[in-house]
Design brief:
The protein has helices at 2-5, 11-38, 42-67, 88-102, 107-117, 125-150, 158-162, 165-171, 174-192, 194-199, 208-234, 238-266. The chain is an all-alpha fold.
Length: 272
Amino acid sequence: MLSHAVSTVGRGWGFGFHEAMDQVGAVAGPLVVAGVLYLNGGYRTGFAALLVPALLALAVLGLAARRYPHPQHLEPVAPQTDAGGFSRPYWLYIAAAGLIGMGYADFPLIAYHFGRTGAVPPTWIPLLYATAMGVDAAAALVLGRLYDRLGMRFLAVIPLFSIFFAPLVFLGGFNYALAGMVLWGVGMGAQESVIKAALAEMVPKERRATGYGLFHAGFGLFWFLGSACMGWLYDISLRYLIAFSMAAQLGAVPLMFRISRDLARRKVYRPA
């Protein structure tokens, strides 16, 4: 739905704004519960308070469904793709994005490392996560705008923004951990904005939902395998874990370059 709705404002900016608003809600929700607890309201009252934005979200979604029952009509000119199926760049893109996800450490593993080693005081662990979420929101907007201006070739450098988060969070002290979480947030912002925005340029308009579904299934599988592998490597050697993380993300770069060339040759992709 979003890929159709943002086609006239720039997909990078549209997906970036969506991710930024998502992070605003992710920060505001816990703050609401914290405020209720501070006023001795209890968890029951805190979760009841969260029912209000949940109902408002459903109301807005219902209104959108009534006003725009066919979201594909919001896209005046769809990318030129083969309506009968998915192209080779699409499948390569799933592999490239999957490698990025495979090399990305989940925050629970990072938080476990912080607590186990004492590199970060316990009270600072959630604060570092909140910092990363704030960076995520800002990065999504900035990177989304850059994608709209530079096009697919910009995606090839996306892994380079966050590739050094692993050595910083797993080998350094507090200051390095903070820098690593900033880079981790930048990478998350890229994954939730420009990587999803570019996918719309490779999927036939009539099969957009299926295309996104397959993409997320593949990305999730890669992420699961990478997370399991990094959890196993953590008990063996942090240096092996870091090498795996960096190698997986770097492996996406040549694939992104190849996708960019293929789409340019077919004249499928045109940045907004």
